[in-house]
Amino acid sequence: MPGVFTGHYLDGRSAARRQASVRLAASGLEIALADGTRLWWPFRDVRQTQGFYAGEQIRLERGSPFPEILLVDDTAFLAALHTTAPGFGRKFHNPGRRRSRVLFTIGAALTSIAAGQGGNVPLLIGSNRDEARLFLVAAGTIDLIDEPTLSFAAGAYGLSEAGLEVYRGNRPGASPGDLLAAVISDWFFRIPPIRVAEARAASAAGHTWMYRFDHPDPADNHRFGACHAAEIPFAFDTAARAELRPLIGDSPAQAVADSTHRVWLDFITGGDPGWAPYDAARRTTALLTETVTPADDPAGDERARWDDIR
C-alpha cells in the first residue's frame, strides 16, 4: 500500500494550488510542499468534505472560516488512512464500508427479483464498456494510478492478482489507470445488471434483454470512451447537438444513433429489442455500435472473476 501520496494544497487565502507530498502518520498528515515548506495536520483538526463516492477527488479541510485545503486524487488514500490511523477512522469515509452497504442493498434486491418481483415487466438492461472513465478521466486521476495503486485498489474490490492479470491480458499495452477503469466499470456498472438478469432468468417470470454500449473509442472523445452517460445522446438521437461534443467527441457517428435509438424504440413499442433474451447458459448480450451485434457472454473470462465476489 502506498505510504506517500501526491496532492495539492491551498492555503485558504488565495486560489493558488501548490503541489504537495502527503505522508500518513498515526496521528496526522505530514505535508511537504514543493518549495520546502512542511506542514503538520493533526487528524483531530481535519475534516473530510469530499471523496465519499468512487472516483471522486478527496478533499480535506483544516480551520475556518477560510480553511486550508488538501486535495488528493489517489483512490487508495482513504483506505491507507484507515490502516495507518485506525483510531481516527470514524472521522473519515471508509471505502470498505461503502462496499458492505452496496453488497447488502444489492443482495436484498436480488432476493426479491429471484422470488418473482417485477417478473411481469419486460426489462432492457445493460451498461457501457468504459463506464468509470468518465470519473477517472475528468478528474485527471487516470494518469496518477501506478502499479502498486492498481494492485491495492483492485484488491480492495475483491479482485485477486490472477483476476487482474485476466484484465491485463485482454488489454495489451493498457496503463494502470486504464486497467483500474475497467475493473471499476465492471464492479459498479457491469456486474450488477448481470446479477439482475440472472435472478430474473432463474425466476422464469419474465424476459430480460442485456446490452453493452461500445461507442466511441477513447481516442475519439477526449479519452472518455464509452463512458457513463455516453449512450444517452445516441439512445435519444440527439448526438448532433454541439454541447455534447466534450463527452461524445467532435464527430459523433449518426449510424450509432440510428441503431441505438432503434433498439430503444423497438423495445418501448413492441417489448422486444431484437435479440435473444438473457439466460445463464448463453448470456446473450447485444453490443451496440454502428450495428447491433448479439454476442454470447462477451468478456466472459472477466465476468467469471466476480463470481462469489460481486
Short description:
The chain is of the alpha+beta class and 310 residues long.
Explained architecture:
The structure is a single chain. The chain is α+β, with helices and mostly antiparallel strands and 310 residues long. The chain folds into two domains: 4-91, PH-domain like (Roll); 95-304, Alpha/Beta hydrolase fold, catalytic domain (Rossmann fold). 36% of the residues lie in helices and 20% in strands. It contains ten helices and eleven strands. The strands form two sheets. The protein has a seven-stranded antiparallel β-sheet. A four-stranded mixed β-sheet has the order 8-9-10-11. α2 (95-114) packs parallel to α6 and α4 (147-156) packs parallel to α6. The longest helix has 28 residues, at 176-203. The two termini are 23 Å apart.
Instruction: Quickly give the CATH architecture of the largest domain.
Output: 3-Layer(aba) Sandwich
Reading the helices and strands in chain order gives EEEEEEEHHEHHHHEHHHEEH
Low-confidence stretches: none
Q: Order of strands in the sheet with the most strands?
A: 4-3-2-1-7-6-5
Q: Helical region count?
A: 10
What is the 3D shape? globular
In terms of DSSP E residues, the strand content is 15-25%
User: Which structural class do you get from the secondary structure elements?
Assistant: alpha+beta
Number of strands: 11
The profile of the biggest β sheet is: 7 strands, antiparallel
How far is the first residue's CA from the last residue's CA? 23 Å
CATH topology annotation of the largest domain: Rossmann fold
Rg over C-alpha atoms, rounded to the nearest angstrom: 22 Å
What name goes with the CATH superfamily of the largest domain?
Alpha/Beta hydrolase fold, catalytic domain
Number of domains: 2
Determine the fraction of residues in helical runs and give it as a percent range: 25-40%
* Overall residue-averaged pLDDT value: 91
Please report the first level of CATH classification, the CATH class of the largest domain.
Answer: Alpha Beta
